[in-house]
Write a structure and sequence with these properties.
The protein has 149 residues and is an alpha+beta fold. It has helices at 55-61, 66-70, 118-128; strands at 8-18, 22-31, 34-44, 77-80, 84-91, 98-104, 107-113, 137-142. The protein has one domain (8-142): Pleckstrin-homology domain (PH domain)/Phosphotyrosine-binding domain (PTB) (PH-domain like, Roll), CATH 2.30.29.30. It contains three helices and eight strands.
C-alpha cells in the first residue's frame, strides 16, 4: 500500500444540516486520510414539505471513489484527519432526532436524522479503536428521555 492510497473507513448516510431556510442533505465519508463532507441536496423548510431531496445524488455517489466524492459538488469540503478533533453521536429519543457532530480547527458542523443510529455507533466504535484516531475524541451519548433535563 503506498502513501497515496485512501481507504474508506466509515460512511454516514441520510443526515441533514439545518440552516435558517433549508435542510441540507449530506453524505459524510471518513477515509484513512480525511473526512469528506459531500452535499447531495436540499429542501426548503416547511411544515408541509420536508422531502429528502438528496436521494438521487446519494445514489450517484454510492460507488464513487473518495476523490470523486470530494469533487462531486462545489459545496463539498474535506477535513484532514490531522485537523479532526471530535466526533460526537447522540442517540435519538421519542422527542429528539439523533445528532452527529464534527469539530475541527475551531469549527464544527452538526447533522440530524430520525431513526436508528446503530450502524453509526458501530462505525464509531471501530474508529475509536483505530490508532489513526488517537487524537480524536469519539463519543456516543444517549439523550435524556426528558429533553429539559
Amino acid at each position: 500500500m503506498n502513501d497515496h492510497s485512501e481507504t474508506e473507513l466509515a460512511h454516514f448516510s441520510g443526515w441533514h444540516h439545518s440552516t435558517n431556510i433549508a435542510l441540507e442533505y449530506w453524505e459524510i465519508r471518513i477515509t484513512s486520510r480525511r473526512v469528506i463532507f459531500c452535499f447531495v441536496g436540499q429542501s426548503y423548510q416547511s411544515l408541509l414539505l420536508k422531502a429528502d431531496m438528496g436521494a438521487s445524488h446519494r445514489d450517484q455517489i454510492t460507488e464513487l471513489p473518495p476523490e470523486a466524492v470530494a469533487e462531486f459538488d462545489d459545496q463539498n469540503f474535506v477535513v484532514p484527519l490531522s485537523a479532526l478533533e471530535t466526533i460526537r453521536l447522540t442517540s435519538p429519543t421519542r422527542f429528539r432526532t439523533a445528532t452527529l457532530e464534527f469539530e475541527w480547527d475551531g469549527e464544527s458542523m452538526t447533522f440530524r436524522r430520525k431513526g436508528s443510529v446503530d450502524e453509526e455507533r458501530e462505525a464509531l466504535e471501530t474508529l475509536d479503536s483505530d490508532d489513526r484516531f488517537d487524537h480524536v475524541t469519539i463519543a456516543h451519548e444517549t439523550s435524556s428521555l426528558l429533553p429539559w433535563l
